[in-house]
Design brief:
This protein has 193 residues and is an alpha+beta fold. Helices cover 23% and strands 32% of the residues.
Length: 193
């Protein structure tokens, strides 16, 4: 019986614990400090990028105080070039690697912050990814879903006007792979080169 309990404890610990290495990075362009986490062989920023680009960049509701918490929203072309030196916009394959590491079925639950999601959509954040629901900008003029959804660009194109994205909703614990217009404004999570 003791052996079974011991093995169960090991399995439980392995399932919900990740070998995280937490650090920080300073963006020399504006002095902002970002927390980072190592998940598997990848190093991710644990915050959405909050660098104010000259174009293709919006604060939710055009209110810069929203960018402090959620980062800016970027169109696809800006997202591909906005990460600081030594970092880049992750590919669709790099997102897949992250989710495989976290366990595809409930990876979003492990990525969601413990607070900040509407209607008790919070997660466990056992990964340290600290996802917050920063919403989106559709058709260059309609903001939506702050508090409910996170949307991130990948650097992978589907076709000339469409790019691949990843998103998390407040009301489920899956991460969705989808496509959207390159002119929409979505969040950016940078990954280390």
């Amino acid at each position: 019986m003791k052996t079974k309990l011991f093995l169960f404890a090991i399995l439980l610990n392995t399932t919900f614990s990740f070998a995280q290495v937490n650090a920080s990075f300073t963006d020399n362009r504006d002095g902002k400090v970002y927390k980072t986490v190592k998940l598997g062989n990848q190093i991710w920023m644990t915050e959405n990028l909050a660098f104010k680009a000259n174009s293709g960049c919006w604060a939710y509701d055009n209110n810069d105080s929203n960018a402090v918490k959620y980062g800016y929203l970027y169109d696809f072309e800006t997202a591909k070039t906005v990460c600081p030196a030594g970092w880049h916009l992750p590919t669709d394959a790099e997102w897949t690697t992250l989710l495989s590491y976290l366990g595809d079925n409930d990876g979003a639950l492990k990525m969601k912050s413990k607070k900040g999601w509407n209607e008790d959509g919070n997660g466990t954040n056992t990964s340290g990814f600290s996802a917050l629901p920063g919403g989106h900008l559709f058709n260059s003029n309609t903001f939506g879903d702050i508090g409910k959804n996170s949307y991130w660009w990948t650097s992978t194109e589907e076709e000339s006007s469409i790019g691949w994205t990843r998103s998390i909703d407040y009301n489920n614990n899956n991460i969705t792979r989808d496509i959207t217009s390159k002119t929409d404004g979505l969040s950016v999570r940078c990954i280390k080169d």
